[in-house]
């Protein structure tokens, strides 16, 4: 699980071009949106595409996405339970 969390942090930084953020600055429990990492709805769409492409997870319900993208911990848990790749 720790390897997956590190992988997610690296992918988020690269995918979303967060040049001023490094992996050590993102805590597993930090909020990804709002006051935490400060991601927005466009970033959410990119994360949804990444889940599909990299892990074979298709998100169809926006409410589901809101719960999944709360933190690195919530993303890693969801991926562990639902990945097909």
CATH architecture: Orthogonal Bundle
Largest sheet: none
Give the C-level CATH assignment.
Answer: Mainly Alpha
Order of helices and strands: HHHH
What's the number of helices? Answer: 4
Q: Any idea what the shape is?
A: globular
Query: Kindly state the mean pLDDT as a whole number?
Result: 94
* Total tally of structural domains: 1
Number of distinct beta strands: 0
Task: Describe this structure as you would to a colleague.
By secondary structure, this protein is an all-alpha fold. It has 4 helices and no strands. The protein has one domain (2-82): Non-ribosomal Peptide Synthetase Peptidyl Carrier Protein, Chain A (Orthogonal Bundle), CATH 1.10.1200.10. Helix 1 crosses helix 4 (72-82). The relative contact order is 0.19. This is Acyl carrier protein. Residues 1-83 form the Carrier domain.
What is the strand and helix layout of this fold?
Layout lengths: L1 H14 L25 H15 L6 H7 L3 H11 L3
Helix pairs in contact: 1-4
Concise description?
With 85 residues, the protein is an all-alpha fold. The protein is 55% helix and 0% strand.
